[in-house]
Amino acid sequence: MELLRSNLSRVQIPEPTHRIYKHECCLSFDTPVKPLSFDTPFIWRRLFDSVYDFQRSEGGLFVDMNSFLAFGKDYVSWNYEKTRNPVYLHIKESPKSVPEDRPLKKPTLLAIGVDGGFDNKEPEYEESYSIVILPDFVSLPFPSVELPEKVRIAVDTVMSAVGAERREQVAAWTAEGKKVSEHALALQQIKSGVVIPPSGWKCSKCDKTENLWLNLTDGMILCGRKNWDGTGGNNHAVEHYKETNYPLAVKLGTITADLGAADVYSYPEDDSVLDPHLAQHLAHFGIDFSTMQKTEMTTAERELDQNTNFDWNRIQESGKELVPVFGPGYTGLVNLGNSCYLAATMQILFSTHSFISRYFSHQSLKLAFEMAPADPTLDINMQLTKLGHGLLSGKYSIPVAEKDVATGDVRQEGIPPRMFKSVVAAGHAEFSSMRQQDALDFFLHLLDKVERGNNMRPDLDPSRSFKFGVEEKILCSSGKVSYNKRDDCILSLNIPLQEATNKDELEAFNNQKADKGLEEDNMSTDEIVRPRVPLEACLATFSSPEQIRDYYSTALKGKTTAIKTTSLTSFPDYLVLHMRKFVMEAGWVPKKLDVYIDVPDVIDISHMRSKGLQPGEELLPDDVPEEAMESAQPVANEEIVAQLVSMGFSQLHCQKAAINTSNTGVEEAMTWLLSHMDDPDIDAPISNQTSDVDQSSVDTLISFGFAEEVARKALKASGGDIEKATDWIFNNPNASISDMDVSSSNSAQTPAQSELPDGGGRYKLFGIVSHIGTSTHCGHYVAHILKEGRWVIFNDSKVGVSTNPPKDMGYLYFFQRLDN
């Protein structure tokens, strides 16, 4: 006890602002729970006990009573050596025996760890505590009246606090409360004499008897939206809104005496809402809500149901028996709630030599911790190293006692990447939420974070293994050329459906549909014939010549039509291909292409290498007259704006969307608009050109490698916006031609490009990220990876041998360059 009293100055009583970690080690995925219980089958205990004897006999977490960071048994001494904090709260948890027939608590709130949130039959634990003083691990019992009052208060505060790991998760998961609809307060109802019976409902336009919605204006009963997996309705309710603009509908089967729980949807607000006059609106159609019974799930409950009961067999390789795999490199990632995009991406990245070397084989956990700041949970390099060791060491890829409830297979628990997600998503509105995200967006965001995290040692930066140089050659009608170079990490490919190899089968299928009046919605998956497009055709579209209209030629001193061709100046170690499966169909409605891509195991892109400036080619003059620069002032394309306005968006928002996407097209502008609707400056007027340019913005562009004169011109043309100025430079390559490398590919390259990896053009497929769903922001992501000569499927925490990898259904394809 005297030893503890002599170290009281190193004990701190937590304040409400302190982040307290007590559920997971900051450097590993150790928890207070002993990983294996005593009823684990003997064969598995014998196999793994030799590795974890000491950890499993001791276990638990040690909470630093000064910094409130948690450490496993193997790592707490490192913290003592670094901080000299000697006093720790040792927390150990042992599972309680729970009856197997314990009912599953149905969640009523989109939350984890709060009343009404997810239960999922998580085991209950008995906790035990003690005070441990390092370096000799002197242990004192807790609770004990003999302990100093300061220690007792500090420990009680830690025990009663919500851990930082769970507090962040709950904050992200808890859904916002429904808002009162602005349309409910003055809703006009048509006196049609319609009386709605208490049961026996059917869609007015089809035979659907479930997922039915009552329009509160005219009393029409119509079916709801079609789900991504083909279930649900036939979209008749939303189509009725588009025809009539009647704003509110209530889901039949959700109306009970508790009107606040009824599912009311506002089409203009595109959200579930509250209708304070719902009783009055229902009475208009003769509905007595007090006698109604609940027979349908609400939209929120259905979302919860999809999150908790995602059917593995409906995602990939349905009907195939999954043979689980364990060991180093075969560790699953726990789904934190719509985090499959992160899991699929990270599994593939940690199958590359660059990430393995940087964060596992050449980086120990101790070295990463020693180099990390005071709080290692906030350091991207520390958390990547933690994740790398968690995935690759095999320490956590072990069978657990309980088998998979659905399949009866032996399973692993996987590791929860909470701290990694928290640090990589910090400051990002979307990735820090619990909403589904685009795996491509996350991949690019992560590479940017990794590059920033290695800015002091670019030679260690694993993101560079994905980078390559892109060269755009522009041929003016004058016969002169210009060259523009940039770096990229992905090849984003259009899918030319006209190049399908099964046109005869497609034509026969479409004729059969027309003759029999069939709809694909009513056909089985096996009956549908989908276009098959070779990957070679997609790659060809990337390099094919493209017309540029209204191109300002410095040779002709005016606008003309130019031809742009794109090629690569270097080949990366790892080539990532992004398939553009989402397009705009008639009416500018986003649609996912239902298409197969025939992807070979080995590809050769040698023909895509740039040849640089060719003999006899003459460069365009590099001077851009002031009037040309002024004409390049960001101006929204009127056609794009008109089409967006016709879809219900405001004129100003549409102009900003067109300008910020460089007038590329309606699809790109709509994507930008939908993702920036909540920007604080979305309603601010569009900036006009100013004569003065902020010097810090000029310096930023100079740091990108652009000349000062070009930087100033671009900033003037873009109203001082750095991002738009960068786009302006790329779209006006003759403005900076004097600063570009326009010599042949055999001559000296720019410093930035000379650091890029390069080699031959032959690549082998090793990873696929597949997507199921109507949008990249919904549905599910799964990874397939070629490991040790066999394909392995990674579906969150489930890891098993793949019998039929979906090579023709990928969203992202990962290739590794083959050595010559």
Which labels suit this protein?
alpha+beta, nine-stranded mixed sheet, metal-binding, 18% strand, 28% helix, zinc, Herpes Virus-1, Papain-like_cys_pep_sf, Cathepsin B, Chain A, globular, ubl conjugation pathway, six-stranded mixed sheet, 820 residues, 6 domains
What does this structure look like?
28% of the residues lie in helices and 18% in strands. Strands 12, 15, 19, 23, 24, 25, 26, 27 and 28 form a nine-stranded mixed beta sheet that branches. Strands 6-11-10-9-7-8 form a six-stranded mixed beta sheet, with helices on one face. Strands 2-1-3-4-5 form a five-stranded antiparallel beta sheet, with no helix packed on it. A hairpin with a 3-residue loop joins strand 20 and strand 21. The protein is globular. Helix 12 runs antiparallel to helix 13, helix 19 packs across helix 20 and helix 21 packs across helix 22. It has six domains: 175 residues, Herpes Virus-1 (2-Layer Sandwich), CATH 3.30.40.10; 96 residues, Zinc/RING finger domain, C3HC4 (zinc finger) (Herpes Virus-1); 175 residues, Cysteine proteinases (Cathepsin B, Chain A); 143 residues, Cysteine proteinases (Cathepsin B, Chain A); 39 residues, Helicase, Ruva Protein, domain 3, CATH 1.10.8; 36 residues, no CATH class. With 820 residues, it is α+β, with helices and mostly antiparallel strands. It has 24 helices and 28 strands. It starts with a helix and ends with a strand. The longest helix is centred in the N-terminal third of the chain and has 17 residues.
